[in-house]
Each structure stands twice: as structure tokens, then as C-alpha cells.
Amino acid sequence: MARVFVYGTLKKGQPNYKHMINTAKGLAKFQGRGRTVEKYPLVIAGKYNIPYMLNIPGTGHHVAGEIYTVDDQMLQFLDEFEGCPDMYQRTLMRIEVVEWEGKGDTGEARAAAEGIMECFVYSTTTYPPEWVGLPYHDSYDSSGKHGLSYILRESR
Predict the structure, then answer these.
(1) Is 37 helix (H, G, I), strand (E, B) or coil?
(2) Do the beta carbons of residue 39 and residue 58 sit within 8 Å?
(3) Residues 153, 123: Cα–Cα separation, whole Å
(4) pLDDT in tens, 38-61
(5) Alpha-carbon distance 92 to 4, whole Å?
(6) For the whole model, what pTM was predicted?
(7) Do the bridges between strand 64-70 and strand 2-6 make them parallel or antiparallel, or are there none, so unpaired?
């Protein structure tokens, strides 16, 4: 099992959460909430209003999201869904645990208690330079005050 931190449309209550609970795509178990230890720019970009975490450490905000453990099948699905490695790249990042519900081995429990753990995160280094000038967000909600509702793939 791998740990994945999601910050966009795959979170609970967001447009693509359905994939996280579709066992035909693999297993994903919600473990808790967290935020990036380092600051990153989280922007909403493109004609489909997609959230992107730009891999520019030290710029932007501590990005809030959810921590999941996923099996190999779900990790492979997420790689394909996120267009990895072309659109997003999956990298390990340090995540500060804000709220932990997970029950697991003592290593996980200890990491959660210490407050920081490494998780895979889908961020991007392949973006148009003008995205750096977009507004930075500390958390994502498709129906947020930004007014940039995500356009589902089925509706494109």
C-alpha cells in the first residue's frame, strides 16, 4: 500500500471523488487530513478549471488535502487519471497531519502522531509560465468563491 495526498477534485465532496470509492479501480482508504509542509502554488487553470499544484517549493501556501492509503491497482489508475508523467508528476512530499483517522501498523500510527509523513502527490512542473501569475489557493473546492467550477471530463 502507498500513501497518496489529494488536494483537488479527488477529495471528498468534489467532482471526481467517485473514483476514490470505485473498488473496480482499486482500493483507497481515507486516513486523514493534512497540508503540505512546504508552501506550493495551487492554481485553477485551463478551460476546464483544473486545480494544479505547481512544483515550486517555497512559493504559495501550505496546501490542504486528504491522505489515503491505496493499493497498486488504484495507484496505477491515479497515474493514468492524472496524466502522469506528462500532465502531472507523482513525487513524494512531506505532509503535516492535521487530523488522523487511520488505523494501521505502528509505523503509520507513529508517523501520524509525530505529525509529518511522506505521501505521493500529483503536482506539475510542465505548465505554461503564465500560470505562476494566477491566484494561489490554500485549499480547493470546485464550488468555491473563486467561481471557477471544474468541468467534468464527461462534459468536455
Answers:
(1) coil
(2) yes
(3) 19
(4) 999 999 999 999 999 999 999 999
(5) 9
(6) 0.92
(7) antiparallel
Confidence (pLDDT) at 53: 98
What's the first-to-final CA gap in the chain, in angstroms? 33
Judge contact between 25 and 77, C-beta under 8 A.
yes
Round to whole Å and give the CA distance between 126 and 128.
7
Catalytic site includes residue 101: no
Let me know: does 124 contact 89? Beta carbons within 8 Å: yes
Task: Give yes or no for a contact between 36 and 94, defined as CB atoms under 8 angstroms apart.
Answer: yes
Residue position matching grid coordinates 507513529: 110
d(CA 17, CA 22) in angstroms, rounded, equals 9
The one catalytic residue among 38, 66, 80, 82: 82
Residue 73 confidence (pLDDT):
98
Cell of 53: 499544484
Q: At residue 138, what are phi and psi to the nearest 5 degrees?
A: -100, -15
Short-list 96, 88, 86, 99, CA closest to 38: 96
